[in-house]
Amino acid sequence: MSAEGTAGRRGRGRPLGARAGTVETRERILAAARQEFSARGYDKTSIRSIAKSADVDPALVHHYFGAKEQVFAASIELSFEPAFGVPDVLAAGADGVGERLARFFIEIWENPVTRAPMLAIVRSAVTNDTAASVLRGIVLRRLLERVASELKVPDPRLRAELAGAQMMGIAIMRYVIKIEPLASADMEDVVALVAPTLQRYLTDPGPVEE
Amino acid sequence: MSAEGTAGRRGRGRPLGARAGTVETRERILAAARQEFSARGYDKTSIRSIAKSADVDPALVHHYFGAKEQVFAASIELSFEPAFGVPDVLAAGADGVGERLARFFIEIWENPVTRAPMLAIVRSAVTNDTAASVLRGIVLRRLLERVASELKVPDPRLRAELAGAQMMGIAIMRYVIKIEPLASADMEDVVALVAPTLQRYLTDPGPVEE
Question: ipTM above 0.90?
Fold first, then answer.
């Protein structure tokens, strides 16, 4: 949105190549931001360090995105994109959804390209209130609402969150704190143990009885 | 252990009051360390800042505990103490253990006095490798071994970790990132939803069937 707006403003009267150039610059800044936030966390990243890594003037970062908080929000939206596939996993039906969802998350984490930015978000959100607020907004607006609309259980958002909490806890213990035996466990064993948990949260209407 | 050792060394040939004094100083340093690590995280805490907060010379902090890593380890042992009650919860029997365990954790978190240092540990471990390594050692040595010996299921340590991951994920989402509806949920509702998850991990021998 901001890309088009900016490209339109800057590209007025210029050939198409100039527009493409501004979109490309914006994407280069975003990639640099993602890289910086992943490597250094929210607190230690600055507009200046992002600009340096993208090889542009700091004013240009500010021009495209605004303050650090907004650059971070745009970077999270991008890093979080794999998780936005969750509603599709749920929409494929209640049968076996627990196993499909467990495998969906584990495939994101087992791939270092998607894991690093996801864990960077968690790290930033756990240590910085602004980062937590940005993540909170994106999870609520982009994920939880859509997930809840796919579920036919009482308190669908609470249950979706408990399923998410289970998977986030596993990610932190396995990839960040690296506590054995989870850190080296065969992921198929983890899927088998976790699938019934997710299945129950997402499909079993009874809250206590089991 | 280190307290007795140090008190013994310093108190040799002195009246009992002097020993009590050194134990008291050590405890004051430890309380200050815990406070500093909670408030500022591992990275931003230094031997100097702990000493200042305890109103002692930095050399004394080093004398009692060693390097920052060791001060942190001692501080974690102390902060983590509430969690060391888990084996007792399990030892009380398989019947209803999921609900007892969920309530046990939630009572630790709902009390700000025990919650703050527990969350500080998680924050530090998620952002700093040394802190992660210290936490890893304590969880393995002080908790997971003892928990596993209480369980009569295959892969007891892996299952105990998955239960722990569920509860840690809930703590992070509820108290740190504060994502609704979990952030304001009635904890009895959460206990009711989570209890069957813990119960299954800790007592149900079947890995997939449910």
Answer: no
